[in-house]
Amino acid sequence: MSTPAKSTPGGPLVAIGGAEDKTSEAEILRRVLSLSKKDAPVVGVITTASSVPDDVFGEYHEVFSGLGASEVLDIRIRERSDAASEQFVEMIRNSDIVFISGGDQMRLTNILGGSPVLETIRAQRQSGSVIAGTSAGAACQSQTMVYGGPATDSLRKGAVQMAAGFGLVDGIIIDTHFLERGRFSRLMEVGATNPEYLGVGLGEDAAVLFEGDVMRAFGPGHVIIVDSSQISGSNVFELSDGEAVTVHNVIMHALVDGYGFNLKDRRVLGPDELRAAGLEHWIANS
Amino acid sequence: MSTPAKSTPGGPLVAIGGAEDKTSEAEILRRVLSLSKKDAPVVGVITTASSVPDDVFGEYHEVFSGLGASEVLDIRIRERSDAASEQFVEMIRNSDIVFISGGDQMRLTNILGGSPVLETIRAQRQSGSVIAGTSAGAACQSQTMVYGGPATDSLRKGAVQMAAGFGLVDGIIIDTHFLERGRFSRLMEVGATNPEYLGVGLGEDAAVLFEGDVMRAFGPGHVIIVDSSQISGSNVFELSDGEAVTVHNVIMHALVDGYGFNLKDRRVLGPDELRAAGLEHWIANS
């Protein structure tokens, strides 16, 4: 079995399912900050996905400052010309953590796709910076990105809308607000269209950290893994658009904080195995 | 592996996920009517679950009459004393099809549990009558019945509320409005509590027909099978109420009209196998 799922090499990559706690607790955002090697990192916030960037930046400025960021940069990219601007490229170069807010993932790919800013984000990651995103900012991390299709109408051929994403992680398709918006059937349809891709359904206030072949769940919410690699049948290629899709033998796992998943073996890792994997990763990278 | 899932012996048993089409098309209700051996059957409608029995009975009266029922009986059981009344027992005895409407399944079990009316429903089924129910009227058919717990909050220990149901089908837990209300995590939690029970998640305008060891999906919607028999781990017994449940290796199948499931082998049946199974069943019962 070909299992291409892995994160591309570089610094920590974090995908958050949306609606993460931003109060003093802020379990997930606190962890994101701690992933930087700096004690008081610079956080660059990209609010391109949002239609209310003022509000969104204001919130993250407050929470990241409260958690110990030395500076929170307002990377206010609103159109493609901004995504080519040296000013914003420079801000990303100065960020120890690049944080991509929620909103509409199609704005992200439309405005940032193929831009100097996106190239700089990739380069930052290569050089060890933390890249993190929530909701749209998480969905865009996949190579093939889900951007639409109501959950209640999915498992109908063509219902799930997909486009090319940023490809920060290979072989994985990320969906967000997963339990709250009942998107299980969405990733089952995605899996039927190409079983090679592992579905990662992030609940609200839940996150994953990609680290080589290992993905770690953290935060108060759930992470649902939708593994279609063993599906034994589907009618998807026989159907016309809108017809009901059948798919058999989809394997799912519900992970919580402290659990992880080996992307290569497609296997759940318990807290003990996960600690061992972390140690190996730390030794390999130090 | 012990797999107790099977319908109890007797006439056809149908569970519908709610919101079935009641227009002239009425694919599911038409099929329910055709399951009776009578050309123009008597349909007894039990509206106990509903808080608006007038409206609900009116709708079913119209659709079943239009589809060719010779009579549609208003079995208006509102309290426990009704459920003991000889009048209603007699109406059920006269029904070729007993149809249980939607509403609140707790009203059904509270009012009908242990009553002469429920005994008569069971006896009717033994003698070959059709029993069908939608939404609450489907959920109540399980031995252990799900009656509450918001989908967005499930996979938290104790979130899914269960009670004893009518036990018309063994080893199965039925949930309804399944895709529309995103209830996948609800049956994942149910499966973690006892992996022996097969979860059957009925979408709206989707139905299953139980026939011995075979369950057939029909109607325009989806039926999701949640098979927890192979789960490889869960923390559910270590948790306090409200804590996040992890569960690994849950197998799911999305079935559509024309597909089925062998409850004994826990195996999807394609259209060809299903036709063969139907023939065997027909020979065994003729």
TrEMBL record, chains A, B:
Gene Ontology MF annotations: carboxypeptidase activity; peptidyl-dipeptidase activity; serine-type peptidase activity
Top-rank lineage group of the source organism: Bacteria
Keyword Cytoplasm attached: no
Assigned keywords, A-Z: Carboxypeptidase, Hydrolase, Protease, Serine protease
Annotated catalytic residues: 135 (charge relay system), 177 (charge relay system), 204 (charge relay system)
Enzyme Commission designation: 3.4.15.6
NCBIfam families, per database record: cyanophycinase
Role: Exopeptidase that catalyzes the hydrolytic cleavage of multi-L-arginyl-poly-L-aspartic acid (cyanophycin; a water-insoluble reserve polymer) into aspartate-arginine dipeptides.
Protein name, as recorded: Cyanophycinase
Species whose genome carries this gene: Vreelandella halophila
Classification of source organism: Bacteria, Pseudomonadati, Pseudomonadota, Gammaproteobacteria, Oceanospirillales
